[in-house]
Description:
Elements: E1 22-25, E2 31-34, H1 41-44, E3 50-54, H2 61-72, H3 74-77, E4 80-84, H4 91-97, E5 106-111, H5 112-120, E6 130-146, H6 154-163, E7 170-172, H7 178-189, E8 199-201, H8 205-213, E9 219-223, H9 224-232, E10 236-241, E11 266-274, H10 279-292, H11 296-305, E12 308-313, H12 315-334
Parallel strand pairs: 3-4, 3-5, 7-8, 7-9
Antiparallel strand pairs: 1-2, 5-11, 6-9, 6-10, 6-11, 6-12
Amino acid sequence: MPSSKSQDDAPGRRWTRWTPLVVAVLATGALVATEPGDDVGSSVLDGKQLRIMAPAAPGGGWDQTSREMQTALRDLVGRSEVYNVGGAGGTIGLSQFTRYHGDPSQLMTTGLIMIGAVETNDSPHSLSETVPLARLTTDYQVVVAAADSPLRDMPAAAEAMRADLPAVSISGGSAGGVEHILAGLLAKAVGADPSGVSYVAHSGGGEALTTLLSGRSSLGISGVSEIRPQIEAGQVRALAVSSPERLPELPDVPTLREVGLDVELQNWRGVVAPKGISAEQEQALEQVLLDMTKTPAWREALARRGWGDATLAGPEFEEFVRSEQARVTQLLGEIGLGRR
């Protein structure tokens, strides 16, 4: 996975020479410039309210990202609306989003999970039918067990998987998503057949947590930012993280490599617009998002959520999405989760 870039050194910041002006886009494709900090909602969207789709159930990473965006964008575009379209790893939301052809007031949060779900669900739609605007954040995964689980640490969990893989059920997000991919990589790392993983897929993090706490799964996999409150509350025990080094948010939790499993995986999240918007509209929307990443509200959200700053926009982000589509397709094929 490419390393995260700060907002100052990301090559996608090709429009920053235009600041301190925020370029606002009209539905007609005309451009106007407004001073940062103004409520420019009406001028940016020609009177329309910005709508951000979180293509998952409330409570998960896409929902969190969308709502933090809503807060951080308030001074740039005024009021906005976040709404949820859950199911099938975001592919149901993606299918609906393709209907907004040419409408710059519609944005959708997306990421690695959707790319995987497109493959595993044989989705007729893909991110190629959208306009990538900006990558925003990265988030590592954490393997957890219920507080009363007999699996007290990751070596014990790995040994259980090695002895009887189907008996160790793992709950997480949608089929083909980053949690499912990590489950397959763990199986491969312990020497088992990844296609034999007993994975319990859910449309949102809250549902996956319920499954784990009810005892219907042996382990859970989640983004650190999503599950950290339950770790801190003592509901679940963190066994290992998928990062290359220990995370500041969970300093006592070892990496998978520390416990002898050669696995590393990073999730990312970003924003796309519908196909059919003009080049000027695309450029202006990118600039609004880049300006958003400099706001105190967004910087505070990164720190509070434990998200990595992965700001990338423009052609560089478009190329990144294409490379991720190829990488994930290959990875899913290797662990038996590709298109059938």
